[in-house]
Amino acid sequence: MSVHVNDTHPLIWFTLNKTNQLSEKARTVFEAPENGESFVYVPAIVFWETAPLERAGRIRLNDGFLRWAEKILSNAGFGLAPLETEIIALGAGYNFNGDPFDETITAYAAHLEVPLITKDTAITNAGLIEIYW
FRET pair for 9, CA 20 to 30 Å: which of 35, 51, 80, 99? Predict the structure, then answer.
């Protein structure tokens, strides 16, 4: 079974059926939990980053933020990666683009030693973790 951490944008694209914005590899990983073939960690900070985007109207989630998040986490192939002090400290030590969300999401992948599903060039160019795109 493959295990990954996801960044915010791929999860939003997948759950809103904007799969044309995903790479084939990323789409396959997001579909695989339905078949029990992969597990995707969703960092708590991904939800934290998403909620204000929805509130500000920058994205529109089906049925609102809370139901969107609950639906994701009700799938056994997705699991919440809690925001722990060790992750915060690791992310605070990164300084590749000044975005605490990106740096903390990167810290999750580094801490768990699994690839990160992201299209983000700043994260990719930092070279700190394995990227899956």
Answer: 35
Angle between helices 44-55 and 64-73 (to 10 degrees): 150
Cα 79 from Cα 73, distance rounded (Å): 6
Both tokens of 124, joined, read 């990719």
Q: Compute the residue count for the chain.
A: 133
- Tens digits of residue pLDDT in 25-43: 999 999 987 778 899 999 9
Fold (CATH) for 2-132: Rossmann fold (3.40.50)
Give me the residue spans of the domains in the chain: 2-132
What are the helix (H) ranges across 32-115? Answer: 44-55, 64-73, 85-92, 100-112
Q: How far apart are CA 106 and CA 32, in angstroms?
A: 22
Find all residues with CB under 8 Å of 70, minimum gap 6, and list them. Answer: none
Query: What pLDDT is recorded for position 108?
Result: 98
Instruction: Supply the pTM of this predicted model.
Output: 0.94
| Of the candidates 103, 74, 92, the residue with the CA atom closest to the CA atom of residue 7 | 103
Distance, CA of 56 to CA of 42 (rounded, Å): 22
